[in-house]
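U., I forgot to send this yesterday:
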Amino acid sequence: MPGPSSHNYFSQRLKLHYVDWGNPMAPPLLLVHGGRDHCRSWDWVAESLCDRYHIIAPDLRGHGDSQWLVGGSYVLPDYVYDITQLVHQANLAPVSIISHSLGGMICLQYAGLFPDNVRQIVAIEGLGMPPNKVEEEERKAIDMRLAGWVDYLRKLSGRRAHKYKTIEDAVKRMQEANKRLTPDQAHHLTIHGIDQNEDGTYSWKFDNYVRVFPPYGLSEKERQSLWARISCPTLLIRGTESWDTNPKEDGRASHFHAAKIIDMSGAGHWVHHDRLQEFVTLVEDFLTC
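Result:
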């Protein structure tokens, strides 16, 4: 597989990484990965589309080859600022976006904040927790939520990155996380998602602190108000075998002006891996409408 070129940019004094698949005269297309993932997770999608689009795929802060945050929490508004800076510094607007999970949450907020900067947006399970889970969290008193956050942070501070003796051991763990991956997919995702430690073992690149969801930030109503500001064509995709619920059935789609909802059978949370060819065809049709 031909590879992209590697670049860096700065946001809030963090050195962040992205890859560029070339073809700079073509329409820009931003690919934004999910939590505990990395930019090379999009390689198969990028390879299919890079002859028609100028594709840029960033590593979110705390992920891949981007710098880790020290002395604070990973919060959505900061992720949104990072994407805002990348679009600004690389002069990408108006840009089309394909995003997954955490990346979808970030990019849908970005599209609502700067609607004129986004030409089209695809979000794979990018609406966050289903409404029943949101309601469950909101019923908890603020002292319980804050105390739980403090307790989780304290426990996480003593957690060390898992070390794998060999790359093959890490590949096995990747396959355990998504049993639908082919051996080639699992190997590719692993070799781009690990670093070798000084003792010769291997660990995942992402910062363990990205697991923490702080008990502050935008409320659900505020996020919904940003969704309502999105003016571009919007495609919301969900795997039928995922933990997520259908946004049309649970009411979340009602906050968008005209979002198209697609359920993809035979796919879990990583639709772009589980049903790659079908996903690429779907996205190509959407982007060329």
